[in-house]
Amino acid sequence: MQKRDLLKTKYLDDLRKQIKENNGIVRFLIHPFYSEDTTVNKKKRFVTEEYLSNRDDYIRRHINKGLVIFQPKYLLNDLWTNLESFDLENVYYIATRDYEATPFEGSEGWDELVKILKLLNVQAVELSGMYLDFRTQKESLDKFDPKYDELHQTPNFIKETDNYIEKFQIASEWLQKKYIPKGCVGFAAISLLERGVDVYFSNLTTPDTVSDII
Q1: Mean pLDDT score of the chain
Q2: Are 195 and 110 in contact (CB under 8 A)?
Q3: Is the pLDDT score of 200 beyond 90?
Q4: Is residue 71 classed as helix, strand or coil in its secondary structure?
Q5: CA distance 69 to 27
Q6: What DSSP assignment string belongs to 126-150?
Q7: Would 168 disulfide with which of 1, 5, 96, 198, CB 3.0-4.6 Å?
């Protein structure tokens, strides 16, 4: 299994071909094996049975189809162990910070990733994984804490939502509902939209799915 860090590898031809065959779609699977705890909690940081039953099939269906896996850097060895049964030839991945979808390199990592997506002619990003948690704008602002959002991405996202609806043809479908995507998957969506990348959610997210708001 060839392990290819998307931010560092020079071997992009395979991924470029897969994205072209996907009509410009790349698939980001975020922290897919991080937890199997199905205990419901108020923070909405738990895994649904539906997610667990569909996760492995999703990986098998999208092997060599533009799949990039995000994994906390300190858990990379666990990722390789989890993927052993899938018989993968190549794995493109992004090493993230602990408990975040942010590349280990920080905001500069997001910037570099978007540059690579442009080189790969990506038209949109499909987001899957854990966690995704939709909140109303009011709830998000009432619970806003700059300690956990130093860049004020949540209030900035709310201010820009109407502009995003006009700008992003694919994301506009869920943006029109005026919900704020939280959790690692939601944060990835906001970070990509900020940098001009259209995004949508697959149904392989937990605990919320986009069908909960559309």
Answers
A1: 94
A2: yes
A3: yes
A4: strand
A5: 8
A6: EEEEEEEEEEEHHHHHHT--TTT-T
A7: 198
